[in-house]
Design a protein that fits this description.
This protein is α+β, with helices and mostly antiparallel strands. It is built from 4 helices and 5 strands; from the N terminus they run E-H-H-E-E-E-H-E-H. The protein binds coenzyme A (COA).
């Protein structure tokens, strides 16, 4: 477990390879095109919504989010976290927490947002436990889906 200082900053185009490498470690598959598109999208959004964590002089985690005004029938403006990932050997050192804290802080300070939400697979225990530890709780929404024939 690493206990060096963690710097959180906005994503830059030059972070793409580092992020894609962490994602490949986590998911087990390379997705270079996905990350190309994803970073292009990030460049169109306010910088605080797309973050990386640096420690030991390298990128070891990332968080991507966005803000919804009334999507999914939600009355309040809501900041959504849709991707968070920390390189396995840097886990347990509050890198993920630092990313979420910065996102929450910026959402509150820059956009006066009072609610932050995420969607997760309840079977994905690490992500579930992480968000529960950070004070997130189960909301009233449920995901509905249908297979396209
Ligand atoms: C979930 C994840 C982001 C957590 O990152 P992390 O840097 O290890 O988490 P932190 O060290 O900041 O943990 C913050 C708190 O949550 C707790 N926590 C984190 N992961 C936990 C787990 N798996 N089980 C129980 N508690 C956990 C920590 O103990 C800590 O609590 P504390 O303050 O009481 O000590 C990381 O495990 C991860 O990247 N998982 C894979 C995510 C993924 O699949 N993303 C999609 C693909 S990109």
């Amino acid at each position: 477990m690493h206990r060096n200082s963690i710097d959180i900053r906005s994503v830059e185009a030059t972070d793409r390879e580092a992020i894609a490498r962490i994602d490949e470690i986590i998911t087990g598959r390379p997705r270079p095109e996905y990350w190309r598109t994803r970073l292009e999208m990030a460049a169109l959004r306010p910088p605080w919504m797309s973050l990386v964590a640096e420690t030991d002089g390298r990128v070891v985690g990332f968080l991507f989010g966005w803000v919804g005004e009334s999507e999914f029938g939600m009355a309040a403006k809501t900041a959504w976290i849709d991707l968070v990932g920390v390189e396995p050997r840097y886990r347990g050192a509050r890198v993920g927490q630092a990313l979420v804290d910065r996102f929450l802080q910026s959402a509150g300070e820059l956009r006066a947002i009072e609610k932050v939400a995420t969607l997760l697979d309840l079977d994905q225990a690490d992500v579930r436990e992480f968000f529960l530890h950070l004070g997130f709780h189960r909301g009233p929404m449920v995901q509905l889906e249908k297979t396209v024939q």
